[in-house]
Amino acid sequence: MPIYVVVVKDGETILADFFSSIYFRRHYIGLLRYIRDNFGVEFPVFESILSGKRCTNPSELLNEIISLTLFLNRYEGKIPKAYFLAIMPRDYSDVVSLLLGGAASVAIPHGNSIIELEGGLGGLSMYRDGVKVKEYREGDEIEVKDMKFKVFTRTAYDAFGKPLKTLVLASIIAERSGGEILLSEELPPELSRRLPNM
Predict the structure, then answer these.
(1) Quick one: which of 32, 91, 183, 198 has the most CB atoms within 10 Å?
(2) For helices 58-74 and 25-39, angle between their N-to-C axes, nearest 10 degrees
(3) Taking a C-beta distance cutoff of 8 angstroms, is the pair 14, 8 a contact?
(4) Co-location of 129 and 160 in the same domain
(5) Distance of alpha carbon 175 from alpha carbon 187, whole angstroms
(6) Which residues does residue 22 pair with via DSSP β-bridges, in sequence order?
(7) How many structural domains does the chain have?
(8) What's the predicted TM-score (pTM) here?
(9) 137 — phi, psi (to 5°)?
(10) Domain, as residue range, for 9
């Protein structure tokens, strides 16, 4: 599910913004685990808000996010690429597919089963009812029911960098206003006006 970043103070929303619509919490947590396991570097405040806690010290989060962004830029070639799916429209009148664009994970009911396409750092696989049935490479095309997908990759910096920059701004605003930061999968009412009317 998409992630939104929210800055709150005394129950009032100061800022609500889109954080990530292609990669989800588990993909960010996977990235942090990969960095910890392979480079010995940790980002505990960021990991804490990814696990659902509020950040009450935005300056600590700001420092971590800047460090993580610089780390991803520096080690871009040593971190596996992040995989995601682009939803291929049936034709150009298929507005829903064109607007949705892509995602790192998709679940599709298929008869009595659930087909999951799970991307993220290092690969993309198909699961049927939780059991891995196939792995895909960049450029592969996948058809499930009447939906078509194409597999793409991005470097970790390209995949995760822009959302991290959004979090930098949220941290600065929270620090200046004395607010707290949280990540949410629930669409903040303040953002609903930015969505296209369907």
Answers:
(1) 183
(2) 70
(3) yes
(4) no
(5) 23
(6) none
(7) 2
(8) 0.86
(9) -115, 165
(10) 3-78+156-187
